[in-house]
Specification:
Layout (H helix, E strand, L loop, with lengths): L18 E2 L7 E4 L25 E3 L8 E4 L2 E6 L8 E2 L4 E2 L24 E6 L5 E2 L3 E6 L5 H9 L18 E5 L12 H15 L3 E8 L7 H7 L8 E5 L6 H19 L5 E4 L4 E6 L10 H14 L3 E4 L9 H5 L5 H21 L9 H5 L5 H8 L8 E5 L9 E5 L5 H10 L4 E6 L12 E5 L2 H7 L5 E2 L2 H4 L4 H16 L5 H5 L16
Parallel strand pairs: 10-11, 10-12, 12-13, 15-16, 15-19, 16-18, 17-18, 19-20, 20-21
Antiparallel strand pairs: 1-2, 2-3, 3-6, 4-5, 5-7, 8-9, 8-14
Helix pairs in contact: 1-4, 2-10, 5-13
Amino acid sequence: MSVETKIEVAASPARTRQTILLHPQDDVRIALVQLVAGTPTGSDGLVVRGLIPPGHKLAVRAIAPGTAVRRYGQIIGFAARGIEAGEHVHTHNLAMGDFERDYAFGADAKTDAGVAGSAQFMGIVRAGGRIATRNYIGILTSVNCSATAAKAIADHFRRDIHPEALAEFPQVDGVVALTHGLGCAVDSQGDGLAVLRRTLGGYARHPNFAAVLIVGLGCETNQIDGLMASEKLTGGATLRTLVIQENGGTARTVAVGIEQVRVLLAEANKVVREPVSARHLIVGLQCGGSDGYSGITANPALGAAVDRLVAHGGTAILSETPEIYGAEHLLTRRVASAEVGEKLIARIRWWEAYCARMGADMNNNPSAGNKAGGLTTILEKSLGAVAKAGTSNLTEVYEYAQQVTQHGLVFMDTPGYDPVSATGQVAGGANLICFTTGRGSAYGCAPTPSLKLSTNTALWNRQRDDIDINCGTIIDGSESVDEAGARLFQLMLDVASGGRTKSELHGYGQNEFVPWQIGAIT
Protein backbone atom coordinates (compact mmCIF):
# COMPACT_ATOMS: atom_id res chain seq x y z
CA MET A 1 0.00 0.00 0.00
CA SER A 2 2.99 2.33 0.06
CA VAL A 3 3.81 4.79 -2.70
CA GLU A 4 6.67 3.19 -4.59
CA THR A 5 8.67 4.41 -7.56
CA LYS A 6 10.54 2.00 -9.78
CA ILE A 7 13.27 4.17 -11.29
CA GLU A 8 16.27 2.12 -12.38
CA VAL A 9 18.58 5.07 -12.99
CA ALA A 10 21.80 3.09 -12.95
CA ALA A 11 20.63 0.62 -15.56
CA SER A 12 18.92 3.23 -17.73
CA PRO A 13 20.81 6.50 -18.18
CA ALA A 14 18.72 9.66 -18.49
CA ARG A 15 19.75 10.28 -22.12
CA THR A 16 18.13 7.04 -23.27
CA ARG A 17 14.95 7.21 -21.20
CA GLN A 18 11.96 9.08 -22.56
CA THR A 19 9.39 7.79 -20.07
CA ILE A 20 9.30 5.98 -16.75
CA LEU A 21 6.81 3.53 -15.23
CA LEU A 22 6.62 4.13 -11.49
CA HIS A 23 4.82 0.94 -10.46
CA PRO A 24 4.06 -2.36 -12.24
CA GLN A 25 0.30 -1.82 -11.77
CA ASP A 26 0.30 1.68 -13.25
CA ASP A 27 -1.85 2.60 -16.23
CA VAL A 28 0.36 5.56 -17.15
CA ARG A 29 3.98 6.36 -17.87
CA ILE A 30 5.56 9.73 -17.09
CA ALA A 31 7.21 11.65 -19.92
CA LEU A 32 10.77 12.77 -19.18
CA VAL A 33 11.00 14.85 -22.37
CA GLN A 34 8.44 16.33 -24.72
CA LEU A 35 6.99 13.53 -26.82
CA VAL A 36 5.44 13.93 -30.26
CA ALA A 37 3.03 11.71 -32.15
CA GLY A 38 4.55 8.53 -33.55
CA THR A 39 7.41 8.35 -31.04
CA PRO A 40 8.07 4.78 -29.77
CA THR A 41 8.66 4.81 -26.01
CA GLY A 42 10.42 1.52 -25.38
CA SER A 43 10.56 -2.21 -25.96
CA ASP A 44 6.87 -2.66 -25.13
CA GLY A 45 5.82 -1.27 -28.52
CA LEU A 46 3.95 1.71 -27.05
CA VAL A 47 3.68 4.59 -29.55
CA VAL A 48 2.83 8.16 -28.58
CA ARG A 49 -0.46 9.61 -29.82
CA GLY A 50 -0.38 13.41 -29.93
CA LEU A 51 1.85 15.90 -28.10
CA ILE A 52 2.81 15.10 -24.48
CA PRO A 53 4.80 17.69 -22.43
CA PRO A 54 7.53 16.62 -20.00
CA GLY A 55 6.17 15.59 -16.61
CA HIS A 56 2.81 14.61 -18.09
CA LYS A 57 1.24 11.16 -18.39
CA LEU A 58 0.56 8.82 -21.29
CA ALA A 59 -1.57 5.70 -21.18
CA VAL A 60 0.30 2.39 -21.33
CA ARG A 61 -2.82 0.54 -22.46
CA ALA A 62 -6.35 1.26 -23.67
CA ILE A 63 -8.55 2.41 -20.77
CA ALA A 64 -12.36 2.07 -20.91
CA PRO A 65 -14.65 4.91 -19.76
CA GLY A 66 -15.19 4.93 -15.98
CA THR A 67 -12.15 2.72 -15.30
CA ALA A 68 -9.86 3.60 -12.38
CA VAL A 69 -6.48 4.94 -13.51
CA ARG A 70 -3.40 4.23 -11.39
CA ARG A 71 -0.09 5.96 -10.80
CA TYR A 72 2.29 4.90 -7.97
CA GLY A 73 0.07 1.78 -7.90
CA GLN A 74 -2.73 3.97 -6.49
CA ILE A 75 -5.92 5.43 -7.96
CA ILE A 76 -5.46 8.98 -9.27
CA GLY A 77 -8.86 9.27 -10.98
CA PHE A 78 -11.25 7.67 -13.45
CA ALA A 79 -11.31 7.77 -17.22
CA ALA A 80 -13.86 10.40 -18.28
CA ARG A 81 -13.99 8.76 -21.72
CA GLY A 82 -12.19 6.02 -23.55
CA ILE A 83 -8.42 6.54 -23.61
CA GLU A 84 -6.20 4.88 -26.22
CA ALA A 85 -2.75 3.44 -25.55
CA GLY A 86 -0.09 6.14 -25.97
CA GLU A 87 -2.61 8.98 -25.50
CA HIS A 88 -2.03 11.98 -23.24
CA VAL A 89 -3.83 11.43 -19.90
CA HIS A 90 -4.77 14.75 -18.30
CA THR A 91 -7.67 16.99 -17.34
CA HIS A 92 -9.51 16.43 -20.63
CA ASN A 93 -9.98 12.70 -20.05
CA LEU A 94 -9.31 12.00 -16.35
CA ALA A 95 -11.76 12.94 -13.58
CA MET A 96 -12.27 12.54 -9.85
CA GLY A 97 -14.51 9.80 -8.47
CA ASP A 98 -15.45 8.16 -5.19
CA PHE A 99 -13.79 4.94 -4.06
CA GLU A 100 -13.27 3.08 -0.80
CA ARG A 101 -9.99 3.51 1.03
CA ASP A 102 -8.72 0.98 3.55
CA TYR A 103 -7.42 2.96 6.54
CA ALA A 104 -6.04 -0.15 8.31
CA PHE A 105 -4.73 1.80 11.30
CA GLY A 106 -1.13 0.88 12.09
CA ALA A 107 -0.94 -2.07 9.70
CA ASP A 108 2.44 -0.94 8.34
CA ALA A 109 3.77 0.75 11.49
CA LYS A 110 7.36 -0.09 12.37
CA THR A 111 7.73 -1.92 15.65
CA ASP A 112 11.41 -1.13 16.07
CA ALA A 113 11.12 2.64 15.55
CA GLY A 114 13.58 4.30 17.90
CA VAL A 115 16.38 6.83 18.05
CA ALA A 116 19.45 5.30 16.42
CA GLY A 117 21.60 8.30 15.55
CA SER A 118 23.60 11.09 17.13
CA ALA A 119 23.85 13.79 14.46
CA GLN A 120 24.43 17.34 15.69
CA PHE A 121 24.16 20.93 14.51
CA MET A 122 25.41 24.23 15.89
CA GLY A 123 22.35 25.65 17.64
CA ILE A 124 21.50 28.46 20.03
CA VAL A 125 20.38 27.31 23.49
CA ARG A 126 17.66 29.52 24.99
CA ALA A 127 16.30 29.62 28.51
CA GLY A 128 14.55 26.40 29.46
CA GLY A 129 16.54 24.39 26.95
CA ARG A 130 14.74 25.63 23.84
CA ILE A 131 16.94 25.41 20.73
CA ALA A 132 17.09 28.07 18.02
CA THR A 133 18.47 27.94 14.49
CA ARG A 134 18.31 31.74 14.05
CA ASN A 135 18.61 34.83 16.26
CA TYR A 136 16.03 37.51 15.38
CA ILE A 137 14.19 40.30 17.15
CA GLY A 138 10.50 40.04 16.24
CA ILE A 139 7.86 42.78 16.00
CA LEU A 140 4.38 41.23 16.14
CA THR A 141 1.04 42.99 15.79
CA SER A 142 -2.27 42.36 17.52
CA VAL A 143 -4.25 43.86 14.64
CA ASN A 144 -3.87 45.13 11.08
CA CYS A 145 -4.15 48.72 12.37
CA SER A 146 -0.74 48.53 14.08
CA ALA A 147 1.05 47.05 11.05
CA THR A 148 2.41 50.38 9.75
CA ALA A 149 3.97 51.26 13.09
CA ALA A 150 5.48 47.77 13.45
CA LYS A 151 7.02 47.92 9.97
CA ALA A 152 8.45 51.38 10.65
CA ILE A 153 10.20 50.08 13.76
CA ALA A 154 11.66 47.09 11.91
CA ASP A 155 12.64 49.15 8.87
CA HIS A 156 14.84 51.32 11.06
CA PHE A 157 17.07 48.26 11.50
CA ARG A 158 17.07 46.92 7.94
CA ARG A 159 20.61 46.17 6.85
CA ASP A 160 19.82 46.93 3.20
CA ILE A 161 18.57 50.44 4.09
CA HIS A 162 20.49 51.32 7.24
CA PRO A 163 23.59 49.08 7.30
CA GLU A 164 24.94 50.93 10.30
CA ALA A 165 21.90 50.14 12.48
CA LEU A 166 23.02 46.57 13.24
CA ALA A 167 26.75 47.04 12.76
CA GLU A 168 27.37 46.56 16.48
CA PHE A 169 25.26 43.39 16.61
CA PRO A 170 26.78 40.82 14.22
CA GLN A 171 25.23 37.86 16.06
CA VAL A 172 21.69 39.14 15.39
CA ASP A 173 20.11 37.91 12.14
CA GLY A 174 17.80 40.90 11.88
CA VAL A 175 14.74 42.73 13.14
CA VAL A 176 11.55 41.60 11.37
CA ALA A 177 7.96 42.85 11.51
CA LEU A 178 5.39 40.09 11.01
CA THR A 179 2.08 41.80 10.29
CA HIS A 180 -1.34 40.50 9.25
CA GLY A 181 -4.79 41.71 8.21
CA LEU A 182 -6.75 40.31 11.15
CA GLY A 183 -7.46 41.12 14.81
CA CYS A 184 -10.75 43.01 14.75
CA ALA A 185 -14.38 42.69 13.61
CA VAL A 186 -14.41 39.05 14.76
CA ASP A 187 -16.30 37.14 17.43
CA SER A 188 -14.32 37.58 20.63
CA GLN A 189 -15.25 34.03 21.67
CA GLY A 190 -14.98 32.42 18.22
CA ASP A 191 -12.54 30.07 16.53
CA GLY A 192 -11.15 32.81 14.30
CA LEU A 193 -9.73 34.86 17.16
CA ALA A 194 -8.60 31.74 19.02
CA VAL A 195 -6.57 30.55 16.00
CA LEU A 196 -5.02 34.00 15.53
CA ARG A 197 -4.03 34.18 19.18
CA ARG A 198 -2.62 30.65 19.10
CA THR A 199 -0.55 31.61 16.06
CA LEU A 200 0.76 34.84 17.60
CA GLY A 201 1.48 33.03 20.86
CA GLY A 202 3.53 30.41 19.02
CA TYR A 203 5.60 33.08 17.34
CA ALA A 204 6.05 35.03 20.60
CA ARG A 205 7.48 31.86 22.20
CA HIS A 206 9.52 30.76 19.19
CA PRO A 207 13.18 30.16 20.10
CA ASN A 208 14.34 31.80 16.86
CA PHE A 209 13.28 35.09 18.41
CA ALA A 210 15.73 36.33 21.04
CA ALA A 211 13.05 38.86 22.02
CA VAL A 212 9.64 40.03 20.82
CA LEU A 213 7.83 43.36 20.82
CA ILE A 214 4.03 43.21 20.33
CA VAL A 215 2.43 46.38 18.95
CA GLY A 216 -1.31 47.04 19.23
CA LEU A 217 -3.70 49.90 18.45
CA GLY A 218 -5.80 49.90 21.62
CA CYS A 219 -9.42 49.47 20.59
CA GLU A 220 -9.18 46.21 18.62
CA THR A 221 -10.98 42.97 19.45
CA ASN A 222 -7.65 41.20 19.87
CA GLN A 223 -6.58 43.16 22.94
CA ILE A 224 -2.96 42.53 23.89
CA ASP A 225 -3.98 41.74 27.48
CA GLY A 226 -6.40 39.12 26.18
CA LEU A 227 -3.75 37.67 23.88
CA MET A 228 -1.24 37.45 26.72
CA ALA A 229 -3.76 35.81 29.05
CA SER A 230 -5.10 33.29 26.54
CA GLU A 231 -1.59 32.23 25.48
CA LYS A 232 -0.14 32.36 29.01
CA LEU A 233 2.50 34.88 27.92
CA THR A 234 4.31 36.93 30.54
CA GLY A 235 5.80 40.34 29.81
CA GLY A 236 9.41 40.91 30.75
CA ALA A 237 12.89 41.57 29.42
CA THR A 238 12.35 39.53 26.23
CA LEU A 239 8.62 40.14 25.66
CA ARG A 240 7.46 43.74 25.55
CA THR A 241 4.28 45.47 24.39
CA LEU A 242 3.32 48.87 22.97
CA VAL A 243 -0.15 50.34 22.37
CA ILE A 244 -0.45 53.22 19.89
CA GLN A 245 -3.40 54.88 21.59
CA GLU A 246 -1.62 54.79 24.95
CA ASN A 247 1.74 56.07 23.62
CA GLY A 248 0.62 59.30 21.97
CA GLY A 249 0.08 58.05 18.43
CA THR A 250 2.08 56.50 15.62
CA ALA A 251 5.23 58.66 15.62
CA ARG A 252 5.68 58.36 19.37
CA THR A 253 5.05 54.61 19.30
CA VAL A 254 7.62 54.11 16.55
CA ALA A 255 10.21 56.17 18.45
CA VAL A 256 9.62 54.26 21.68
CA GLY A 257 9.69 50.95 19.76
CA ILE A 258 13.04 51.76 18.19
CA GLU A 259 14.54 52.54 21.58
CA GLN A 260 13.18 49.31 23.05
CA VAL A 261 14.62 47.28 20.18
CA ARG A 262 18.02 48.88 20.73
CA VAL A 263 17.95 47.59 24.30
CA LEU A 264 16.89 44.11 23.16
CA LEU A 265 19.63 43.95 20.54
CA ALA A 266 22.42 44.32 23.06
CA GLU A 267 21.29 41.23 24.95
CA ALA A 268 20.49 39.25 21.80
CA ASN A 269 23.99 39.82 20.47
CA LYS A 270 25.49 37.81 23.35
CA VAL A 271 24.43 34.43 21.93
CA VAL A 272 27.00 31.78 21.07
CA ARG A 273 26.25 28.71 18.94
CA GLU A 274 27.14 25.33 20.41
CA PRO A 275 26.79 21.68 19.38
CA VAL A 276 23.30 20.29 20.02
CA SER A 277 21.57 17.05 19.11
CA ALA A 278 19.56 16.81 15.89
CA ARG A 279 16.64 15.76 18.12
CA HIS A 280 16.08 19.51 18.60
CA LEU A 281 15.45 20.06 14.90
CA ILE A 282 11.77 20.53 14.01
CA VAL A 283 11.28 20.63 10.24
CA GLY A 284 8.11 21.82 8.52
CA LEU A 285 7.50 20.02 5.21
CA GLN A 286 6.04 22.05 2.34
CA CYS A 287 5.50 21.64 -1.40
CA GLY A 288 4.38 24.47 -3.66
CA GLY A 289 4.27 24.92 -7.39
CA SER A 290 4.27 21.13 -7.68
CA ASP A 291 4.64 19.35 -11.02
CA GLY A 292 4.59 15.86 -12.44
CA TYR A 293 8.07 15.19 -11.08
CA SER A 294 7.39 16.25 -7.47
CA GLY A 295 6.30 12.79 -6.36
CA ILE A 296 9.25 11.17 -8.13
CA THR A 297 12.23 13.32 -7.12
CA ALA A 298 12.14 16.13 -4.54
CA ASN A 299 9.33 14.79 -2.36
CA PRO A 300 10.78 11.26 -2.01
CA ALA A 301 14.25 12.78 -1.45
CA LEU A 302 12.80 14.94 1.33
CA GLY A 303 11.11 11.81 2.69
CA ALA A 304 14.48 10.04 2.78
CA ALA A 305 15.93 13.00 4.69
CA VAL A 306 12.95 12.93 7.08
CA ASP A 307 13.58 9.26 7.83
CA ARG A 308 17.16 10.16 8.73
CA LEU A 309 16.00 13.07 10.89
CA VAL A 310 13.52 10.86 12.76
CA ALA A 311 16.19 8.18 13.24
CA HIS A 312 18.30 10.85 14.98
CA GLY A 313 15.40 11.79 17.27
CA GLY A 314 14.23 14.88 15.37
CA THR A 315 10.74 15.94 14.33
CA ALA A 316 9.12 16.54 10.95
CA ILE A 317 5.71 18.20 10.48
CA LEU A 318 3.65 17.09 7.48
CA SER A 319 0.73 19.43 6.77
CA GLU A 320 -1.54 20.77 3.99
CA THR A 321 -4.55 18.56 4.71
CA PRO A 322 -6.29 19.20 1.35
CA GLU A 323 -3.09 18.00 -0.31
CA ILE A 324 -3.05 14.60 1.39
CA TYR A 325 -6.73 14.11 0.54
CA GLY A 326 -7.13 10.80 -1.25
CA ALA A 327 -3.79 9.56 0.06
CA GLU A 328 -4.56 9.67 3.77
CA HIS A 329 -4.91 5.87 3.80
CA LEU A 330 -1.15 5.63 3.22
CA LEU A 331 -0.56 7.59 6.42
CA THR A 332 -3.15 5.79 8.57
CA ARG A 333 -1.45 2.47 7.81
CA ARG A 334 1.64 3.67 9.72
CA VAL A 335 0.11 5.56 12.63
CA ALA A 336 1.60 4.79 16.03
CA SER A 337 -1.87 4.13 17.44
CA ALA A 338 -5.53 3.93 16.40
CA GLU A 339 -6.10 7.17 18.31
CA VAL A 340 -3.67 9.02 16.07
CA GLY A 341 -5.37 7.53 13.02
CA GLU A 342 -8.80 8.65 14.22
CA LYS A 343 -7.47 12.17 14.74
CA LEU A 344 -6.21 12.31 11.16
CA ILE A 345 -9.48 11.07 9.68
CA ALA A 346 -11.40 13.56 11.85
CA ARG A 347 -9.46 16.39 10.21
CA ILE A 348 -10.25 14.97 6.75
CA ARG A 349 -13.96 14.90 7.62
CA TRP A 350 -13.74 18.47 8.95
CA TRP A 351 -12.38 19.60 5.60
CA GLU A 352 -15.09 17.78 3.67
CA ALA A 353 -17.73 19.53 5.78
CA TYR A 354 -15.91 22.86 5.55
CA CYS A 355 -15.81 22.70 1.75
CA ALA A 356 -19.49 21.70 1.64
CA ARG A 357 -20.43 24.74 3.76
CA MET A 358 -18.41 27.03 1.50
CA GLY A 359 -19.72 25.52 -1.74
CA ALA A 360 -16.16 24.47 -2.60
CA ASP A 361 -14.70 21.28 -4.05
CA MET A 362 -11.71 19.47 -2.59
CA ASN A 363 -10.57 18.98 -6.21
CA ASN A 364 -10.29 22.74 -6.83
CA ASN A 365 -6.64 21.90 -6.15
CA PRO A 366 -4.33 21.32 -8.20
CA SER A 367 -3.70 24.88 -9.29
CA ALA A 368 -3.26 26.04 -12.88
CA GLY A 369 0.51 25.83 -12.48
CA ASN A 370 0.29 22.31 -11.06
CA LYS A 371 -1.77 21.21 -14.06
CA ALA A 372 0.63 22.83 -16.51
CA GLY A 373 3.37 20.81 -14.81
CA GLY A 374 1.52 17.52 -15.37
CA LEU A 375 -0.72 17.01 -12.34
CA THR A 376 -4.38 16.29 -13.03
CA THR A 377 -6.40 15.58 -9.86
CA ILE A 378 -5.97 16.20 -6.14
CA LEU A 379 -5.61 12.43 -5.75
CA GLU A 380 -2.52 12.45 -7.95
CA LYS A 381 -1.09 15.52 -6.24
CA SER A 382 -1.71 14.07 -2.77
CA LEU A 383 -0.02 10.77 -3.56
CA GLY A 384 3.11 12.68 -4.53
CA ALA A 385 2.81 15.04 -1.56
CA VAL A 386 2.78 12.32 1.10
CA ALA A 387 6.15 11.12 -0.17
CA LYS A 388 7.65 14.06 1.78
CA ALA A 389 6.83 12.10 4.94
CA GLY A 390 9.18 9.22 4.17
CA THR A 391 8.39 5.88 5.80
CA SER A 392 8.47 6.71 9.51
CA ASN A 393 5.55 6.08 11.88
CA LEU A 394 3.05 8.93 12.27
CA THR A 395 3.18 9.71 15.99
CA GLU A 396 0.68 12.56 16.53
CA VAL A 397 -1.86 14.87 14.86
CA TYR A 398 -2.14 18.57 15.77
CA GLU A 399 -4.60 21.31 14.95
CA TYR A 400 -3.38 24.50 13.30
CA ALA A 401 -0.58 26.32 15.18
CA GLN A 402 -0.70 23.99 18.18
CA GLN A 403 2.63 23.55 19.95
CA VAL A 404 4.39 20.43 18.68
CA THR A 405 5.82 18.42 21.56
CA GLN A 406 5.92 14.89 20.14
CA HIS A 407 9.10 13.75 18.42
CA GLY A 408 9.13 11.84 15.14
CA LEU A 409 6.84 12.35 12.15
CA VAL A 410 3.72 14.34 13.09
CA PHE A 411 0.85 15.92 11.17
CA MET A 412 -0.54 19.44 11.55
CA ASP A 413 -3.91 20.34 10.04
CA THR A 414 -3.44 23.33 7.74
CA PRO A 415 -4.75 24.60 4.40
CA GLY A 416 -2.75 23.79 1.30
CA TYR A 417 -1.86 27.44 0.69
CA ASP A 418 1.85 27.52 1.47
CA PRO A 419 2.19 30.79 3.45
CA VAL A 420 -0.78 29.90 5.68
CA SER A 421 0.41 26.33 6.13
CA ALA A 422 4.01 27.22 6.98
CA THR A 423 2.86 29.98 9.33
CA GLY A 424 1.02 27.32 11.35
CA GLN A 425 4.08 25.05 11.36
CA VAL A 426 6.38 27.81 12.60
CA ALA A 427 3.83 28.77 15.27
CA GLY A 428 3.96 25.11 16.31
CA GLY A 429 7.73 25.31 16.75
CA ALA A 430 9.30 24.50 13.36
CA ASN A 431 12.84 25.90 13.33
CA LEU A 432 13.50 24.84 9.71
CA ILE A 433 11.27 24.60 6.63
CA CYS A 434 11.96 22.34 3.62
CA PHE A 435 9.98 23.40 0.56
CA THR A 436 9.87 21.39 -2.69
CA THR A 437 8.86 23.04 -5.96
CA GLY A 438 8.62 22.07 -9.59
CA ARG A 439 7.44 25.41 -10.96
CA GLY A 440 9.69 27.78 -9.01
CA SER A 441 7.79 29.04 -5.96
CA ALA A 442 9.27 32.15 -4.33
CA TYR A 443 9.08 31.79 -0.58
CA GLY A 444 10.76 32.53 2.75
CA CYS A 445 9.57 32.26 6.33
CA ALA A 446 11.17 34.52 8.98
CA PRO A 447 12.21 33.76 11.65
CA THR A 448 12.63 30.20 10.37
CA PRO A 449 14.99 29.49 7.43
CA SER A 450 13.41 27.85 4.40
CA LEU A 451 15.29 25.43 2.12
CA LYS A 452 14.02 25.17 -1.46
CA LEU A 453 14.28 21.91 -3.44
CA SER A 454 13.76 21.77 -7.22
CA THR A 455 12.08 18.70 -8.70
CA ASN A 456 13.77 18.98 -12.08
CA THR A 457 17.10 20.17 -13.44
CA ALA A 458 15.52 22.55 -15.97
CA LEU A 459 14.08 24.57 -13.07
CA TRP A 460 17.42 24.44 -11.24
CA ASN A 461 19.24 25.79 -14.28
CA ARG A 462 16.65 28.49 -14.85
CA GLN A 463 16.15 29.66 -11.26
CA ARG A 464 19.10 28.50 -9.19
CA ASP A 465 19.30 31.88 -7.43
CA ASP A 466 16.09 30.85 -5.65
CA ILE A 467 16.76 27.13 -5.19
CA ASP A 468 19.06 25.55 -2.57
CA ILE A 469 19.30 21.98 -3.86
CA ASN A 470 18.49 20.22 -7.12
CA CYS A 471 16.68 16.88 -6.92
CA GLY A 472 16.34 16.61 -10.69
CA THR A 473 19.50 14.51 -10.44
CA ILE A 474 17.21 11.57 -9.65
CA ILE A 475 15.49 11.82 -13.03
CA ASP A 476 18.77 12.66 -14.76
CA GLY A 477 20.18 9.36 -13.52
CA SER A 478 23.13 10.72 -11.57
CA GLU A 479 21.74 10.15 -8.06
CA SER A 480 19.35 7.82 -6.25
CA VAL A 481 16.51 9.00 -4.02
CA ASP A 482 18.45 7.84 -0.96
CA GLU A 483 21.64 9.61 -2.04
CA ALA A 484 19.70 12.84 -2.57
CA GLY A 485 18.09 12.38 0.84
CA ALA A 486 21.48 11.98 2.51
CA ARG A 487 22.75 15.12 0.78
CA LEU A 488 19.64 17.03 1.87
CA PHE A 489 19.89 15.87 5.49
CA GLN A 490 23.43 17.24 5.70
CA LEU A 491 22.26 20.53 4.19
CA MET A 492 19.48 20.71 6.79
CA LEU A 493 22.09 20.43 9.55
CA ASP A 494 24.27 23.05 7.86
CA VAL A 495 21.41 25.54 7.57
CA ALA A 496 20.31 24.86 11.14
CA SER A 497 23.89 25.73 12.11
CA GLY A 498 23.59 29.17 10.53
CA GLY A 499 24.15 28.58 6.82
CA ARG A 500 22.10 31.06 4.78
CA THR A 501 19.38 29.90 2.42
CA LYS A 502 18.65 31.53 -0.94
CA SER A 503 15.37 32.98 0.33
CA GLU A 504 17.17 34.57 3.28
CA LEU A 505 19.72 36.16 0.95
CA HIS A 506 16.85 37.64 -1.07
CA GLY A 507 15.13 39.00 2.06
CA TYR A 508 12.02 36.81 1.91
CA GLY A 509 10.15 36.09 5.13
CA GLN A 510 8.28 39.10 6.50
CA ASN A 511 5.45 39.20 3.94
CA GLU A 512 4.89 35.44 4.16
CA PHE A 513 3.45 35.55 7.70
CA VAL A 514 -0.19 34.66 6.94
CA PRO A 515 -2.29 33.31 9.85
CA TRP A 516 -5.27 31.15 8.86
CA GLN A 517 -8.48 33.17 8.76
CA ILE A 518 -11.33 30.77 9.52
CA GLY A 519 -13.82 32.99 11.40
CA ALA A 520 -16.49 35.31 10.04
CA ILE A 521 -15.50 38.97 9.60
CA THR A 522 -18.33 41.30 10.68
